[in-house]
Amino acid sequence: MKKIGFTWLLEKFSISGYLLTHESYIGTVDKIEVSSKNTIIQTFKPKYDVSDDPFAHLEFAIKYDDLNLALLKEIFLSIDFNILEKYIQQKPNLKYTRIIGYLVEFTTNKKIQVTISSTNYIDLLDENCYLTGTSVKIQKWKINDNLLGTSNFCPIIRKTTELSELLTWDLKNALVHLKQTYNSEVFKRASYYLFKKESKSSSEIEQEDPPRDRMDKFIYLLENAGEKTFEESLSEESLVYIQNQLVDPRYANTQYRDYQNYVGQTMRDFSQKIHYICPPPEFVKSLMTGIAALNGKSNTIHPILKATMVSFGFVYVHPFEDGNGRIHRYLIHDILVRNNVFPYKTIVPVSANILANMHEYDTTLELVSKQIEQKSIYELNSNGKLIVNNPTETEALYRYPDFTKHAIFLIRAIKSTVTEEIPEELVFLQRFDELKKDIQHIVDMPNKKLDFIIVLLHQNNGRISAKKRKLFPELTKDEISKMEIAYLEVFDSNQKKY
């Protein structure tokens, strides 16, 4: 089969390190397959073939392949700018020429001298294929820029079948249904537990065990999320404050980092295994500016998609020495509360679901981090200092990530939490209250002792061990047996244990 579009351009300019989500080839029949890496392999009939000219393949790629802004930037920089400008000037009014010209300026910040005489505006992204942002008319190119972000930071989210199906789920209605199904007191008690669960799980993801006061500070932050505007919440001042609440005071930052950092792991021989190379310090402020600007371009998209772009964008920028992961997960909650998806003072403990699906979470993060690692040329000295020698070659990967899989992961995590984990907690509390009443009918005992005996029953599958029975000398053997029977009737041993 003959390569065409991005596959041809990668070979033509000897470009490597990019993950193509769609590869195109010319064959004898039209055919679409999915590779073992989940890449769409599409074969076109010979009538789609083009000449061995970079611009013909560029037009084909933009028309048929998945948009990859980072790759486009490298292709543009691989072509002599004078030749690129001349190509635009020769047929300035054609649709794909205008799109290419605008994307040259968008990704490289180089200006093309051209005059467009066409009066019709064209959409940059096809809304049938991509999630689109607020449309901005670009008069020079007669283009409606409906990208999700700005040139500082602009994720791409493709409308795959899986994502489109997940987006039909009504999260807000699902939470309303939960509140209508369970009484307010049970829901209030569950919320308190879920806030603690989120704080604990978020720390466990980082393999940390912070002291109680910092756990409480995180809970306080979560309880008051969504109070500030989007722009205030994403300001450097606000994020520095949050970071200071979450880390040991010795590692509290006063601003975004101005040094190179990385995420690594010490191996048996004391060498470092690099998991992620963070953006060089000269890109940090503009990247964070780009994330803060997302609201202006994507204020009409689904809140979970906005939460995806902001939270994953933040964790890839890694603007602080410590606390980045917990802030990343805090931002998910902050955005969904502000957009009235999560009711104020209510939490959906996404971190617990992430913790239970760490392999999938890590695999999702690696969709971007692996490409950056492959393209980075770096040195790590004996003091653990990392130096990136080719920062300009990796810059676009930080600025223009594909967050399709990230969005799918986050929606799944939230859906699982709302439809499974939160109901489990609510059902448990209902059963706890029911059992409490039943035991009180057996023995009218003090509330603290009553709660304690239920905890012991729950921890030992409905039985009180001989050792634990000694804690209740005032209870007869018959009374304890009745309590055990009551537990089994309420918490049916054949049902899922909550």
Quick overview of this protein structure:
By secondary structure, the chain is an alpha+beta fold. The chain has helices at residues 6-12, 54-64, 69-78, 81-90, 95-108, 161-166, 171-181, 184-205, 212-223, 230-233, 236-246, 281-292, 294-297, 303-317, 324-338, 350-356, 358-375, 391-399, 404-442, 447-459, 466-469, 477-490, and strands at 2-4, 22-26, 31-34, 40-44, 122-123, 136-138, 143-145, 262-266, 272-277, 378-380, 386-388.
Describe the protein in words.
There is one protein chain. With 498 residues, the chain is α+β, with helices and mostly antiparallel strands. The longest helix is centred in the last third of the chain and has 39 residues, at 404-442. It starts with a strand and ends in an 8-residue tail after the last helix. The relative contact order is 0.09. It has 22 helices and eleven strands. The chain has a four-stranded mixed β-sheet. It has helices spanning 6-12, 54-64, 69-78, 81-90, 95-108, 161-166, 171-181, 184-205, 212-223, 230-233, 236-246, 281-292, 294-297, 303-317, 324-338, 350-356, 358-375, 391-399, 404-442, 447-459, 466-469, 477-490, and strands at 2-4, 22-26, 31-34, 40-44, 122-123, 136-138, 143-145, 262-266, 272-277, 378-380, 386-388. The model has no long low-confidence stretch (mean pLDDT 91). Helix 8 (184-205) crosses helix 19 and helix 17 runs antiparallel to helix 18 (391-399). Among the domains are: 163-414, Fic-like fold; 424-490, no CATH class. The radius of gyration is 28 Å and the shape is elongated.
